[in-house]
Rhamnose ABC transporter, rhamnose-binding protein (Robinsoniella peoriensis), 331 residues
Amino acid sequence: MSRKYMLVSIGFLVLMVVLYIQLFLFSSVGQAEVTDRQHGSRMIVISKDNDLIYQHLRKSTVEAAQQYHINVENQTLQSWESTTLRDSVVFAIYSGAQAVAFQSNDPVFTQEMYELASEQGVQLILYESENYQRDTIPAVSANSYSIGTNTGQLAIDASGEEGCKAVLVLEKTQEGIPSTYQNMKVQGIMEVFGQHDDAEIVQTLSTEEEVYAGEKLANTLEGLKNTYNTIICLNAYTVPLIAQQVIDSNLVDKVQIIGYGMQQQTLDYVNRGVIYGTVTPDPDQMGNDIVAMLHTWVNNHSYDDNMPVPLHTITRENVDKFSRLWLETEQ
């Protein structure tokens, strides 16, 4: 009997050990799943590689990711061509991320990506873009109308008593597709110009991000010489190219340049007095808000479909402050 009792006892102990191990493993897996839901949200942010504003945007997304316990992967593109951006967004959607953030001013492409993301249960977030699907795609962006009024006021200030005869340079949009984002900027400029009898837009040009953009623009501006005294450029990539053209043509102080964005060359030209001033969204706030929006979404909280980003107007009087803030903390 004692031997039988011993075998039963040993069997019972073995069973208890097995059950305890299974219970421990099950509890660990369950806890891991909870942790993943709380702290494992994954986001991919796609941005340009060569622009100071995006360097700071990436930096601020990493800082915000630590605050909100979200995994953020920053993907940088050397080229902003439509095929490159499309491939990157599609890959990100199928990668298993909960959200993908990117910049797009092409409504057809944006709608296509929205439909694809919806099928995969992925949230799209636009930044510095037109909010084409206001009810479905959230956007973190500076107010385009305010960009227009701020740049318009800079142009008036730069022209002084001479009056403002401006050439307006816009980013080229896809043929046949109206750009609300651009139109609102232009409306903002015209609102300011409408308050001054001696302010007008003498010519509107469009340019795109390409190797020969500066050369093409230089030839166009040469053909318009003596008809303008101000250039308002809302294409951030082109602003330094225009500044160099003004230098090469010995037109510094004769032609005032109003820019958009905060490329390092742009800030340098503002400091040298070649560019009168530039208007730029706050990149640190933009990056933080992108991550905050995902955090709100994954926690099933309501959020505004458009989070406005503050604008900064930078002139020679305050460029040192922003250069210290953005250039010295670069990377």
Q: What stands out?
A: The mean pLDDT is 82.
